[in-house]
Amino acid sequence: MFGLAHLVAPVSVDDFLRNFWGTRAVYIQGSNSKVTDLFGWQEVNSYLNNAREGYPGFRLVYDKSGLPTEAFQDLDGWIRKGATLALNNVQQFDEVMRQFNEALGADLNTALNTNCYVSCPAKQGFDNHFDEHCVFIVQTEGRKAWKVFSPTITYPLHAQRLVNKGTPPKADPYVECVLEPGDVLFIPRGHWHYAVAETPSVHLTVGPASRSATEFLGWLNVQLMNSDEFFRRDFPVAGAKALGGTIDGALEAHVAEFRRRLSEIIQGDALMEALIRYCMSSNPVRRNRRLPPDWMIEERITPETAFKIPAAQKALIRYDSDTRTAAIHVRGHLLQLNAMPEALVAPMFEQTGVVLTGTRLLEHCPELGWDKLRAMLLSLYSAGVLELAESDATVWV
Predict the structure, then answer these.
(1) Residue 275 CA to chain centroid, in angstroms?
(2) Phi then psi for 356, rounded to 5 degrees?
(3) How deeply is 90 buried, as exposed, middle or buried, from its count of CB atoms within 10 A (0-12, 13-18, 19+)?
(4) Which of 11, 90, 175, 383 is the S-S candidate for 148 at Cβ 3.0 to 4.6 Å?
(5) How far apart are CA 103 and CA 93, in angstroms?
(6) pLDDT tens across 304-330, in order?
(7) Ramachandran class of 355: left when φ > 0, alpha when ψ lies in -120 to 50, beta otherwise
(8) For 30-63, how does the pLDDT look when each residue is reduced to its tens digit (9 = 90+)?
(9) What is the pLDDT of residues 69-122, one digit of tens each?
(10) Strands (E), 63-99
């Protein structure tokens, strides 16, 4: 149900990625059916009514400034004055939003965070500003008017810690729109924007993490630090002739070796494989806990136990037919499966929504035997790669 195609429809995914993603804002007119199950008034009221003392994760913003926690004691009054209520990280406590984030994150190959904003009419909650990450604005309740302006700093990053972001451009906005339920506004990072509600309004701001070269190099640095002691060595700069000393050759030799090792990393398929590992490992999908089956499965699993691949699953498979080894990037982890018959790869990892049983899998590879397949299924279930199908989960409870 969820995912990038659902979010940007009727714009095609290819059109969106080629013409707008990361470069230009776009208003996408939708329909109320697009957001029927998403976070709206019912969920806002539910979480307000059940929040702990102090409203952790909640913020009130008035006249473009944050209010102290004590302001929640007069929440209704502040809302009537025009304060904006922000609920942070709604995917952490709302199941539907978790599924929404996982599906969209799988399509974009990046982690996501979603905040909810509740606004009163005719009061601007936040000043004209830009974010260091792209955002999808998803209107779920009411109407809200938006203006988007061209960037003054291209592709800003959180790591730059931009205290002074400068002033908004004086030119007119290049996108002006009024969002109604089901409408989506995509704003690339660095593009200035602000909004004013026309009616009581609820919208979601979905923020994908950036995937820039600097973030990738930061991740790669950690990998090299932990895997190759050469990259932990000091450069022999003390006494080096190039830096005004008398010792000749040592620094030059070290630099040559440094260049050689970096060249190995960036040549051929090595860099692409590293980039794939970075994208997969930095976008882990949470394992769905299911109790009590989680602690009963070893005793109760049979060839007829029904499993399924989670809807947001994404698996990248590298199969070595000589060693019959499958290296599988999945759910933010790298699984190494030995003695993995190639005939099992497609039915186990390349489709979602398909119910799997030991009996069906053994039809693809009868020589494997139930004992080995059982161990493999338990390992995949423990890693969260497989889940119990609803029918079996219900029976076990």
Answers:
(1) 16
(2) -115, 140
(3) buried
(4) 175
(5) 16
(6) 999 988 877 788 888 888 888 888 888
(7) beta
(8) 988 899 899 999 999 998 888 877 778 889 988 8
(9) 888 888 888 888 888 999 999 999 899 999 999 999 989 999 999 999 999 886
(10) 65-66, 84-87
- The answer to whether 388 touches 395, Cβ cutoff 8 Å, is no
Residues 6 or more apart whose CB falls under 8 angstroms from that of 374 comprise 301, 358
Q: How far apart are CA 104 and CA 122, in angstroms?
A: 32
Residues composing the chain: 397
Quick one: residue 329, left, alpha or beta (phi over 0 = left, psi -120 to 50 = alpha)? Answer: beta
Out of 100-114, 168-182, 363-377, which region has the weakest mean confidence (pLDDT)?
A: 363-377
**Under a CB-based contact definition with an 8 Å cutoff, are residues 316 and 365 in contact?**
no
* Beta carbons of 228 and 66 less than 8 angstroms apart: no
* Closest listed residue to residue 328, CA positions, set 320, 316, 314, 311: 316
| Count of CB atoms situated within 10 Å of the CB of 192 | 23
Q: What H or E segment, with its residue span, contains residue 76?
A: helix 75-81
Is a pLDDT exceeding 70 seen at residue 395?
A: no
CA distances in angstroms from 28 to 2, 37, 247, listed in the order given: 16, 19, 65
In angstroms, rounded to a whole number, what is the distance separating the alpha carbons of residues 189 and 131? 5
Given a contact cutoff of 8 angstroms between Cβ atoms, the answer to whether 213 and 219 are in contact is no
Of residues 238, 195, 167, the one with CA closest to residue 25:
195
Q: What sign does the CA torsion over 131, 137, 142, 148 have?
A: positive
Calculate mean pLDDT across residues 241-248: 91
Whether residue 352 contacts residue 309, with contact meaning beta carbons closer than 8 Å, is answered with: yes
Q: Which residues are paired to 27 by β-bridges? A: 185
pLDDT, position 46: 92
Tell me the pTM: 0.88
Q: What is the DSSP letter of 240?
A: B
Q: What angle, rounded to 10 degrees, do the helices at 370-382 and 293-300 form?
A: 170
C-alpha pair distances (Å), 167 with each of 151, 155, 190, 193, 376: 10, 16, 12, 12, 58
Is residue 286's pLDDT more than 90? no
Sign of CA dihedral 345, 347, 352, 355: negative
Q: Kindly provide the residue ranges of all beta strands, DSSP E only, lying in the chain, ordered along the sequence.
A: 26-28, 58-62, 65-66, 84-87, 112-119, 135-141, 144-148, 175-179, 184-187, 193-197, 201-208, 307-308, 315-320, 325-330, 333-337, 355-356, 387-388
